[in-house]
């Protein structure tokens, strides 16, 4: 094998330019065979395996999660078991029509809210367009640039006054 990687690189590029795929693949392999192999530091593999072999923490938090999950499953099972008794409860449950009517009223309210929000957005877009049209004129652009320079000078002066005050 050739020890000079530049020769292998030139051979690969020449083979690619010539369109010789077999020679290009061989030269490409030689280029990467000449590169040094990188290895992890000693003991890296053992540290990684030790980190993953640890037993999960069986502390109080894990026990509480398991207890909460068991209580939720038991409550869901109890509720599902008592569901047929709901029809004997003396309170009035809403009918399917009442549920659909409430959903329709909610959708109508949402539609009105979105229409109002879009109207406000349209008004803000018109205001922004007017400001943008005004800012494109040379007079307004010059005034805005002057205002920005005055505010930058004021900030610079304020910063230096504060630094001076801290030193005194």
Describe this structure in words.
With 168 residues, this protein is an all-alpha fold. The chain folds into three domains: 1-52, no CATH class; 98-136; 138-168. The protein contains six helices and no strands. The chain has helices spanning 5-18, 21-33, 44-53, 60-82, 96-135, 138-167. The chain is extended and about 95 Å long. It starts with a helix and ends with a helix. The model has no long low-confidence stretch (mean pLDDT 87).
Name some characteristics of this structure.
168 residues; mainly alpha; 3 domains
Order of helices and strands: HHHHHH
Stretches where pLDDT falls below 50 for ≥5 residues?
none
Number of distinct helices: 6
Number of domains: 3
β-strand amount: under 5%
Question: What is the end-to-end distance?
Answer: 73 Å
The Rg value, from CA coordinates, equals 38 Å
Tell me the helix content. Answer: over 70%
Structural class: mainly alpha
Kindly state the number of beta strands.
0
Mean pLDDT: 87
Inertia-based shape: extended
Largest sheet: none
Question: What topology emerges from the helices and strands here?
Answer:
Layout: H1 5-18, H2 21-33, H3 44-53, H4 60-82, H5 96-135, H6 138-167
Helix pairs in contact: 1-2
């Amino acid at each position: 094998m050739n020890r000079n990687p530049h020769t292998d690189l030139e051979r690969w590029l020449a083979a690619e330019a010539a369109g010789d795929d077999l020679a290009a693949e061989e030269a490409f392999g030689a280029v990467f065979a000449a590169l040094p192999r990188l290895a992890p530091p000693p003991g890296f593999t053992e540290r990684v395996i030790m980190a993953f072999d640890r037993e999960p923490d069986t502390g109080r938090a894990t026990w509480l999660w398991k207890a909460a999950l068991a209580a939720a499953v038991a409550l869901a099972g109890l509720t599902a078991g008592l569901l047929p008794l709901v029809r004997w409860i003396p309170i009035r449950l809403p009918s399917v029509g009442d549920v659909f009517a409430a959903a329709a009223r909610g959708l109508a309210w949402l539609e009105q809210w979105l229409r109002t929000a879009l109207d406000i957005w349209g008004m803000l877009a018109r205001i922004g367009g007017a400001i943008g049209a005004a800012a494109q004129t040379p007079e307004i652009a010059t005034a805005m640039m002057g205002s920005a320079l005055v505010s930058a000078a004021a900030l610079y002066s304020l910063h230096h006054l504060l630094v001076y005050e801290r030193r005194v």
